[in-house]
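This section describes the prediction task in plain terms. A model, or a person checking by hand, is given the sequence of a single protein chain and must write out its three-dimensional structure as a string of tokens. No templates, partner chains or ligands are provided. The sample shown here is typical of the held-out split.
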Amino acid sequence: ISLMVYLKNLTAADFLLCLSLPLRITFYASKSAIVQQLYCSFGASALLLNMYASILFMGYIAVNRYLKIVHPSGTHILQSVRTAHIISVVTWVCLLAPAVIYTILFFITQKPLNSIPSCCDPFISASVSLFFTIIHTLSIIIFLVVFISLVFLYYSTSRRVLQAQQRQLASSDKLVKSRRNMLVLVSIFCVCFVPYHLVRLPSTFLTSSRSVVSVLNYIMEVTTMVAVFNICLDPVVYFFLSKTFRSRVRMVSWRGNIQQVNEQERAAVHCYSSELSQ
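The expected answer:
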């Protein structure tokens, strides 16, 4: 189904985000100029690319679940697997394009440095800085659109649940489950991405005071870690929305319980045999 397409792409975004983290850690731990250039050109853009891929695919998942409520037969064009594949490809292309342009501009317009900087700002020219500001502005718009959409979809789902319960419809249980799934999405989205963007907005446009910028940069690092934490929380989304993932988790848990019981039985038999031998 189309939902699995979005879930797989969300998994891919999380995986690629994981791959970009070692470079970010090395950037802060190393004083190598090559590492600094690699992170400022490739690492930073890769982290943002995959973060906003996660944001967009969470939005697509929410829309998909809402359409499942409105069109339970799955006949809407946005519910088709082909449409999901097209949307996913277009999303990745639209995210990759500015990342590639930024990386190319970075190396073309890179400033010569006499010392190794502790941040990316000395590497960035005026043209790259302008492009970076434009990208961040568009990113904030993407976040706001997805955030407002998630809140609206959750509100609409809650209204449908209330109406179904008042009419005592048989589908009310399914709607309650859909509302729960939507709540999981909205909660994870808010916990991970809202703090980051609350800091990102002023840090992008307020550059007059060095002390303010310094504080914002520090807070930005904290909120970035919180945003990256969505890698750990997204499996909760998979568990609630994917029957296949849920059944596999339960199967692994069931096998683990059986193995534990078998080990306990072997230990009991061993103790009993030891007592008999004495």
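For orientation: The chain has eight helices and no strands.
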